[in-house]
Amino acid sequence: MKKTNAVLFSLLMIISSLAGCIGGEEFDTSDLEKEIADLEENQESMNQTIIELRNENEELTNSLNEKNRTIYDQATLISSLTQRLQDLLSSGSDDDDDSSDDADDDTPAWLDASDAGYTYASNVDNHRSLMKDLCDIKAAASSDGGYDFAEAKNVYMNGKNAQKDDGSYRTLAGFAAVAGKNHGYDTYYGNDGSVDAHIMAALDGTGDFEGTSNTVRYQGIAKLTANLGMVAYTIHELNTAVAKADAGNVDNDSGAPHNWDEGWAFFHGPDEDYGCSPAKVMEKRAADFGTADENGVAATFAATEAAMVSGLAALQASDADGYNGAVETILKNVMITYSQAVLKYTSKMDSNTTAEKYQAEGYAFWKTMEAYAAPHMHDGCDNSVLNSVMLMGEINASTCDAFIWAQHDAEDDDDYMCYNTVTHDVSDEATTEEECAGYSADGYMDNYAAKMMNDVLDLTDASQLGTSYDVAPWLQPVWDYYGITSDDIGSMS
């Protein structure tokens, strides 16, 4: 009995204690709420870390692919040299062989007759070898290469892999710096060797790259050489091919088909060096925007390759409509690719840790397309009263002078608007007659949307970092000009 009473007494004490906890004042949950908030903040931070680790993993994967490619190339060379040694040993000596070596016998096995689905009509092996220079430049300038910008510059200026018959080397600089090339970059930028000027700024850390980090310079070097440099090369060769065909020179070895072959050599290059080419960018951006087929082939690449194949046949047949149409298709898909790239990297500039890297990538991709995009982007009218610019499409100065303070509704004396009599646009910002009068011809700003793009991608302006930009409205007129649809661009994942 005493034992039972003791148990009952203990239970009463526990119940009494619980009653004190649940009764009376409301239980304070502030500590728990703070803990939950801290956990949520920690989770957000961990999510950001995961994203950054994924980006690092992508870079490491690319680096591994480059090293694997180098190993493959070395293995191929060893195999070739071993075979030649065996042939020499089995045949005695060179003195016993009356036949001379054919030049093609020295061609590496990986330089076969085609790259991807394009078969060359002429010998452009030396041009194809230039793609290895891009790979070597990228490797030297990378963090794994110790940010060896001097070596990257040496390969760029002096060449390394594309040796000519006279012992000299074909170089990227030799093309980029020379005047009179058949592309639109020099005309747009207003100086000869404009492609070289952009690349050299990244290599030397001058101009647009003045005072920038090693990371930014690496991105500039790697992506300007592979994209701006090689796309300019490609456009030059395609335009030269068209000019030769128009003049009647369609000889495979010396005429239009040869230049057309060179275009593919510079855009795609050997299959083994595809990872360093502009064509690879098509694959990457299609994966970003969901514009690849079930096999991972970019719609842009498929269209470009098909145009290259059909364009070659059209050149050989002197079919002007065919080869001109092929050039238009190629340029359109180049614009799709680099639009996707600019959209991606300007949207990622809000990163706390890698914004400058993304800005540098966006910069390089924008420079690749700027000369062919900016002339079709919106011009602007600067309002001297409001100190703001209204995008107006492709206009001239007189359009900015055509704003009037007009009555919208004749029956409403208070219903006025700032109306442009040329474009029929209405300024939402100008809400008074005085503000409307702030528009004039003096405020005309040519290529203003392109200027805004350059401001966002100003590598020396840290204030641009930390913001996610949607530049699609600036690029829409470009897409309209080239017949690019929303389906062509896709949606970024």
Secondary-structure element series: HHEEHHHHHHHHHHHEEHEEEHEHHH
Chain oligomer state: single chain
Instruction: Give me the side-by-side strand order of the main sheet.
Output: 4-3-8
Shape: globular
Number of helices: 18
Structural class: mainly alpha
Described by strand count, sense and barrel closure, the largest sheet is:
3 strands, antiparallel
Unreliably modeled segments: 1-8, 18-25, 75-110
Give the overall pLDDT as a whole number: 86
Share of helix among residues? 55-70%
Strand content: 5-15%
Radius of gyration: 31 Å
Cα separation of the termini: 75 Å
DSSP strand tally: 8
Descriptive notes:
58% of the residues lie in helices and 7% in strands. The longest helix is centred in the first third of the chain and has 62 residues. It contains 18 helices and 8 strands. Helix 8 packs antiparallel against helix 9 and helix 13 packs antiparallel against helix 16. The chain is mostly helical. The strands form 3 sheets. A 3-stranded antiparallel beta sheet has the order 4-3-8. A 3-stranded antiparallel beta sheet has the order 5-6-7, with no helix packed on it. Strands 1-2 form a two-stranded antiparallel ribbon. A hairpin with a 2-residue loop joins strand 1 and strand 2. Among the domains are: 269 residues, no CATH class; 69 residues, no CATH class. The N terminus is likely disordered.
Q: Could you give the topology of this structure?
A:
Layout: H1 2-22, H2 30-91, E1 114-115, E2 118-119, H3 125-141, H4 149-158, H5 172-176, H6 185-189, H7 194-204, H8 214-246, H9 256-267, H10 278-289, H11 299-316, H12 320-347, H13 355-373, E3 379-383, E4 388-393, H14 397-400, E5 403-407, E6 416-420, E7 426-427, H15 433-436, E8 439-445, H16 448-456, H17 472-482, H18 486-489
Antiparallel strand pairs: 1-2, 3-4, 3-8, 5-6, 6-7
Helix pairs in contact: 3-4, 3-8, 7-8, 8-9, 8-12, 8-13, 9-11, 10-12, 11-12, 12-13, 12-17, 13-16
